[in-house]
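Bumping with the actual sequence this time:
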Amino acid sequence: MSKIIVVGGGPSGMMAALNASKSNHEVILLERNGELGRKLLLTGGGRCNITNNRDIEDFFDKVVNNKKFLYSSFYSFTNKDLLSYFEENNLEYKIETANDHKVYTKSDKSEEVIIALKSDLKANKVKILYNTKVVDLIIENNTVIGVKTENNQTILADKVIISTGGKSYPNTGSDGMMYEILKKYGHTINKIYPALIPLTVKESFIKNLQGISMKNVEISCKIKKKKISQVGDMLFAHFGLTGPAVLKFSSYINKYIDENELEISLDFLPSINSDEISKLIRENPNKNVINNLKGLLPQNFLKEIFNLLDLTDKKANELSKSDELKIVECIKSMKLTCNGSIGIKASQVTSGGVSVKEINSSTMESKLIENLFFTGEVIDVDAETGGYNLQIAFSTGYLAGISV
């Protein structure tokens, strides 16, 4: 039996603590807040998007950074394993097949996930110390032997698992402090970027579109001749763009927009070509253009498009060919200048963190410091929305827990 310290009581930390304890180790879980899983409560809009029900092989296509690193984690503890675990612990869930195969709690209450995990932690005799902030590691001869806490307490252990999260939502406890500690002991911390984040737009007219939601929009750009695109729902905001498609898109461009402006293109009807839109505009020649298009696009959006193009709505048979082309181009290829995001504090996920080159992907142990392990968002791995990031947390937590 070894003594294991787990630093951080989020999903990956709880899963690591559970599986270390099930291997008959003495486990102490240190949580800086007065409760476990504070950030977990926010996921899925408070509903907790536990995982995704796609085949585990499909998960790799949804990982944005360092997907190969996650092979051992994902296959050691798959989404099916996670759902079986929750079934065994009396958590009911539902699969929303029409909603990208996302898995939520049946009650739509994220606290039920925490209740199930806490109950299992108690059953497995994991000691939880709340309001305990770790401010340093104790390293001797390139081996971790314990931690120091904010109140000057030293807690010794045979092995330490770092599950402190990234820098997003710092009010939940993930303020990035652990990155500085790890850097001090030789670990490379890859630059931190906000991921799954609303984007800011330079054009001032965007404020006039604020609050308008759009279905199945293709948002795209080119970076170094490579096309990046996402299709899904989006929402105009006073600062720019948000919504599922925008959040996914942001994770693929966040490094570029950190230092550059980027032209992005919005196709509001990606399944209909330009000629078809022109026909629809002219379909009822005695009706106004907006009337002909209102079944395809929101009327308030169309009105703003006409204002933007300095056009007045008129009967289709009175519309000039050049104005028709302007309308079609705006619908099929609205150009905007993305000049950043709303920042790391509001991002759903942190991109960047401890370099995967310095972690053994088969065990989650540091290659630099013996007996030091990592899980979850503190590592430089992130994925699209849809339950994939939580699966990363649970899978890496499981693997670290069984490897100590």
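The tokens above came from a reply further down the thread. The radius of gyration is 24 Å.
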